[in-house]
Amino acid sequence: MEEFKTVRELYETCRFGDTFEKESISDVKLEGWIRTNRNNGSIGFIELNDGTYFRNAQLVYDKEVIKDFDVVSHFKTGAAIFITGKFVLTPEMKQPFEIQVKAIELEGDVSEDYPLQKKRHGFEFLREIAHLRPRTNTFNAVFRLRSVLSMAIHEFFQSQGFIYVHTPIITGNDAEGAGEAFSVVTSDKDPNAFFGKPASLSVSGQLQVEAFALAYRDVYTFGPTFRAEKSNTVRHASEFWMIEPEIAFADLEDDMDLIEDCVRFCIKYVMENCEEEMNFFNTMIDTTLIDRLTAVLNSHFARVTYTEAIEELQKAKANGHKFENENIYWGMDLQSEHERYITEQVIKGPVFLTDYPKDIKAFYMRLNDDGKTVAACDLLVPAVGELVGGSQREERYDVLLERMHELGMKTEGLEWYLDLRRYGGCKHAGFGIGFDRLLMYLTGMANIRDVQPFPRTPNNLKF
């Protein structure tokens, strides 16, 4: 009697030998989509993918066995089929097994203009058909890894006793103080009609998650955030996901320890749970990927101050190194090329830059004793530059209030945030990881549009 199986189950069977003996033959049923279909006139071969595993299952159909060989030989790439057949181990072949087809049915055909054929398609072309690109090898691997990496985030924090907080998507304040937020309105005539005050899509859940850290101690939020920057770079999107933990009774050193543990955990998790996908990325996208990630896993994460980094960049410039942005001075906001120089040429590994000038950082970061810098950090990694940003938060009510006034910020609407300093406040810290950028780093994909299922960018709202 045939038994329903998935392609993943069959590969795991070959890997672990827990269902079939080495020379056994068992009857199975499979459902999936045709990736390729070829024949030599008497024997045909279909590469079938059912969505459960990155690799395909090879189906072999014989003119002497199935009645409708000529019909089956014309089944197109992308068609959905149902088959019954014999599972046969083939350890001497490229694939560990094949399915010798006994019967095959067409469940869903594809039209003649189906845009995915047996050839390599450019990523830019595939962005125009984002609803179909998960059927290609690259994006099948990307979005499976996206799912696994999401699980890694939750497993890391949950295993350490963190509480998962759902912070609001609609908010009345801009956590970054940047003002680059999408407005939420229900009426063109009165944009404040619904909430009675201006509302926007959240740029960060950090302020709200701080409130929960001062009750649960260790918390995190992981969800969508929005930025209204009209930036068409490969690293910016209008909608993206953020991982934002917050830890109470913790300083910047504790924060950096947690960042390091989290990054290591994520790298190890995807390498162990997405072996096929990671090998694909290493072969087809970035041949240095696995070596680079392994090096980070085995590296000491250095810690260098912003001031020391500026000195290194100025020294490099004096020695003839060419930067696109050559105006290097204390107080500047480092560009990606500067960050990469520090991590790739100076440290030759991952590095935390700390103690940034207060004027280029957010209002909530703790002011250092020098009055000029804040207890902030950015994790820089080779090939990317900045991967994570974090800080110790300003827990002193008077200092935070003065900082807000200094920046010309209104306290209206943020009274509750100031209350956190008045009602049992304590030192606390946190960080933010752009989930999509982390996924780019782990896959070698160069454009944020190619790690998001349906990317939202300026002038792009097709799906």
Structural class: alpha+beta
* Total DSSP helices: 13
Q: Mean of residue pLDDT?
A: 93
Largest sheet entry: 8 strands, mixed
Strand content: 15-25%
Rg, Cα atoms, Å:
27 Å
**Spatial strand order of the main sheet:** 7-10-11-16-15-14-13-12
The helix-strand sequence is EHEEEHEEHHEEEHEEHHHEHHEEEHHEH
Helical residue percent band: 25-40%
* Span of the ends, CA to CA: 44 Å
Please characterize this protein's 3D structure.
This protein has 463 residues and is an alpha+beta fold. It has helices spanning 7-16, 69-72, 123-127, 137-159, 206-216, 252-273, 275-284, 289-297, 306-318, 336-346, 397-406, 415-422, 435-443, and strands at residues 3-4, 25-39, 43-49, 57-62, 80-89, 97-108, 163-164, 170-171, 200-201, 218-226, 239-248, 302-305, 351-357, 373-381, 385-392, 428-434. It has an eight-stranded mixed β-sheet with strand order 7-10-11-16-15-14-13-12. It has a five-stranded mixed barrel with strand order 2-3-4-6-5. It has a two-stranded antiparallel ribbon with strand order 8-9. Strand 14 and strand 15 (385-392) form a beta hairpin. It is elongated. 33% of the residues are buried.
Reconstruct the topology from this structure.
Blueprint: E1 3-4, H1 7-16, E2 25-39, E3 43-49, E4 57-62, H2 69-72, E5 80-89, E6 97-108, H3 123-127, H4 137-159, E7 163-164, E8 170-171, E9 200-201, H5 206-216, E10 218-226, E11 239-248, H6 252-273, H7 275-284, H8 289-297, E12 302-305, H9 306-318, H10 336-346, E13 351-357, E14 373-381, E15 385-392, H11 397-406, H12 415-422, E16 428-434, H13 435-443
Parallel strand pairs: 1-2, 4-6, 7-10, 12-13
Antiparallel strand pairs: 2-3, 2-5, 3-4, 5-6, 8-9, 10-11, 11-16, 13-14, 14-15, 15-16
Helix pairs in contact: 4-6, 4-7, 4-13, 6-8
